Amino acid sequence: MKYYQEISGLYCKKTNLGKAGKSTKGVQRYFCKNEACETYTFMLEYSSKAYEAGIKKKIVEMAINGSGIRDTARVLNPQSY
Description:
alpha+beta, 2 domains, three-stranded antiparallel sheet, 2 helices, elongated
């Protein structure tokens, strides 16, 4: 039985995508053909949470507000304790 998953771009939400090879861990990469899209390539599943969309913005915001490395790690990775 075959099933199909519709994949859309992370920011533009358009389905005009192409395959962009595989990562070193064997996960399929995709690229958005829309020129207005913020990211060129992306993956559906990342091995590290740091590469997911929106994490960088949270880290910068926490650093500006005076959070240290341990505070940031505690907030972004609640499964660690």
